[in-house]
Design a protein that fits this description.
alpha/beta, Rossmann fold, 5 strands
Amino acid sequence: MDLSSNDEVRVMLVDDHPQRAAMVEQALKVCGFHIVAMLTSASGLLFQIQELKPHVVMIDIESPDRDVLESLSLINQHNPTPVVMFSNEEDPVFIRQAINVGVSAYMMEDINPDKVKPVIEVALAQFEMFQTLRRQLNSTQQELEDKNILAKAKRLLMKHQKIAEPEAHKNMRSLAMNNHQTLVDVAKNVIAILDQDLKKAPVDEPK
């Protein structure tokens, strides 16, 4: 997201120190950010994000625990959002877990009201880069899965109709065109039908 127009950036602040939160809120407002909510804990954070749709979440909790990480994991799965976490927790295991559940920027310090803008800029950039990598990975995985489905369907068709691979591929393409389906959808139908036929096929009793 371009921060040249900060009034469009919606920030959710989670801080268990009301006085510190008030100072950070004021600093964010001076920078032109829009504060959509100020929470004292991460309880119900996913619901709040779904309702208020912030562009970034800033978390500064004295002793972040497993519940915080679980909340962030749910957010990362269901409603990915850039998250900045400020914490004095220096345990590398905890930091790695925080990054793994979707924290875009982990700062081993308390929120400094004078530095909130560059921190948000980093978080948004890191988040966008990660989401791009995730989309590329998902696309690659889907392509591999589709290739495996097509290969299995062709093997079944070749065995069932006693034909070679080129003819099996040609038959599937014809089915796709005639039924206005994708080749992968046809392949899934072929697998479903021929797998059922194989299960129904009589088994020779041992003599």
